[in-house]
Description:
alpha+beta; Beta Polymerase, domain 2
Amino acid sequence: MKQNIYDVREWDRFLIPYTQTVEELKVKFKSIRNGYREVSEYSPIEFITGRVKKVSSILEKSKRYDIPFDQIKDQMEDIAGIRIMCQLLDDIYVVVDHIRERDGHDFEIVYEKDYIHDYKDSGYRSYHMVIRYPVQTAFGLENVLAEIQIRTLAMNFWATIEHSLNYKYRQNIPEGIRKRLQQAAIAVWSLDNEMLQIKDEIMQAQALFEANSNIIRSITDQLQLIKTLGNSEIAAQLQAKFDQILDLSSNEQLEVLLEEIQSHIPKIEEL
């Protein structure tokens, strides 16, 4: 990074590989989630977000930690940030294993920090992984440091509130509010552990929901195909059956209907 910290164009160019890294990593992790869902299995990943740190935040952190401007690229690990949210505590470590399996392939793990069990005094819990990601930009290859945070939905809710309060009070949250946050963190940990006790039921419910969604998508696609082929009468009859079964929420009947719809298509195509 050059010394002219006020040149907007320099910052725009400096942040290009970070922006690209965030977008590429989001695609990779979403593809893992979608892979589970495509085969109607429970996904350890609920959703993914990403962000590139604002220039003002980069400058503030470089000042706070005494990072020279020409060392920002090598010493600031969270300019590119990915956050992966999970439903259950166990899911966090499944995701961690997925990331470890890719170490040395499409990125390199620099280090890991388990704040789940070794939580911060504030009550903050999350699993952090810093990776070095090679990204090919319009200006050449860059090896970018990126931080991945993996946490439950409940942990993320707590962390978002704490972040907002830290911003409001400039990292100096009043003691009374700080104690309430710590109590809330204990409640979040208790909630996550309670949800873990009904893990099997949650996973079965999610798998059933995904299976139902996949069948419905297949039926609507096939009905549209029949309409496109020009047999509106059969399409209307099958649509009426579909509407009736939807009210019953029966996967078994939906599967039977899908087979019936699929059996009509070759006959219609022959006409």
